[in-house]
Amino acid sequence: MLFGIFSMADQKKSILKLSEKGNSERKIAKLLDVPKLTVHRVIARFNETGSFKRKPGSGRPRTARTKANKAKIKGRIQRNPSSRKNSTRKLGKALGIGPTSVRRILKEDLGMKSRRMAKGQLLNDDARNKRLERFLFILLFYT
Fold first, then answer.
1. Is the pTM of this model over 0.70?
2. Which DSSP symbol is given to 86?
């Protein structure tokens, strides 16, 4: 089959062109090496709608990444950005959606990063100066 060589849009265009020239569905299927049912559906959809594109609203509806859920997550984080209740698991549980969906909303829709702030050592001036002296010593010693 030639499915990998041409895009589906190109195949549909060629099916329609061959159909307009008067070729039968069986002959088109044989020429393009595609199933006859595919040829039939493309021609039927074109005759019905005037286009071979998908109907709007066809496909699986969104259940987790809805506007309402995006607004709820954004609101919770704005109210208390450093809360432990803002973990992806807890947000998902509160909204009734999965933690992966929460991560996807945070990253792709809200442009945020879903990560926990790492606890790090705070350096005072004395420790910072001592660290700098050691760095310079090592730098001079090994170069």
1. no
2. G
